[in-house]
Amino acid sequence: MKKNTAILINERGEINFDELSLSPVMSENVELIKNLFEGDAMLRTRECKNAFNPEIHCTLFFMDGMANSELVDGSIAKPLVEMIAPPCETESVADFIAEKVLYAGEVKKSGDVSLIAKSLSYGDTVVFAEGASEALIVNSKGWATRGVEQPENEKNLRGPKEGFTESLLMNTGLIRRKLKTPDLKFEMMSIGTRSNTGVCICYLKSLASDEVLKTLKERMKKIEIDGILDTNYIDELTRDNPYTPFKTAGVTERPDVVAANLLEGKIAVIVDGSPSVMTVPYLLIESLQSDDDYYLNYYFASIGRLLRIISLLITTITPAFYIALVAFHKEMIPKNLALSISAAREGVPFPITVECIIMLTVFEILRESGVRMPSNVGAALSIVGAIVIGQAAVDAKFVSAPMVIIVSMTGITGLMVSKLKGVVILYRLLLVILASVLGMYGLIFGLMFMVAHAASLTSYGVRYTSFISGKKIQEIKDIYLRLPWQIMKTRPVNIAKNLVRKN
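Now predict its structure.
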């Protein structure tokens, strides 16, 4: 820092804005901004002197790459230089420039140095005028953004193909296009002591629960972290149960999904710089629902949902169930099948539990490598790797053929419930260990623990498994099956204030 700027740094090494203030002398304000952003090569400065009114002497600051240079030139610099009419004697220079000179759509005055620094970093242009102790913050945001395109991880057969981008303002616009009502509310806040990331809370006022909204706001205000780069930061820092493997907040990159959640009384959180939007509260059954369920015929949608529920059971239980039968309960296996399994395992050097864990680990490595590799290489790598490694392992008597079948079935069904990937991997391993020690009893105890843990969770005050207690048709209409829209007359219970869908 330069002279007289020692007070800018507090004991934590951060800029202490409380000790800073603007001056009526423009040169001092200019020096202050230059000191604040010393070493920043992107800071641009332009001095504007009006030929007709010598008292109109201004200095502009903006960030290259964040501000729209055409707006800066045409709506700010040009009017300041070419303006002819002088200000009234009773009118301040700042008010005169803001109200009668600048062409920009949004102009506000501020003497808060912290706000000025944040606005400048976010793409606004800051104007200092000689004799004014307040700066003008002019909206000139214009950074480059990615175009609206279909999300890679949430492709659907029918329905809208657009997805969120990294621009918060563009994302709010995509939601507004879906819900053209004044009941749609957007509330802004800034999180992160260094990143100052813009975060937007979005909800329908007549539907969103006041208790959930209050809880979410209070928790977000308590966040103390230097930077927020994605919605997952907020999810982890505000969730009810911070150490559970279950996801208790929804995440999507699709505007239509967010709009559908808002219509059910849920709340969305949008983070500037992230294409992922968080929705709360979140129920366990939502992990088994698909976007296409509401764009396809309800018969096919219901079949698909039932298949996902069955796949969840298969991918979680099958390895542990197989180990329990082979290691502890051989009498439950048909004779011919038992002989076939015994013959296949002859010569395998590892116990069945070790064999299972090795194969599950290899499959997860192949799956993860396929995801991380480029799309044109990843699919081929996964298929070829699974076939070659599986066949070679069986031929070398490293693993048995039945175990390859079990792991393959487990892996394929796991792809059907990708939203529960982390939970499935963790509990599958737990069940395998319990089944290898206690047999079928271990499997049952593990399942009881898993169900009890899920039932004990809440998502921002709403019970995570509240759908299980539903008895009436309107309470289970969109749980295990997707019924026709004519029957789904109410919103989910315990979430929305107004349950009737037509209102």
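Residues 1-7 have pLDDT under 50 and may be disordered.
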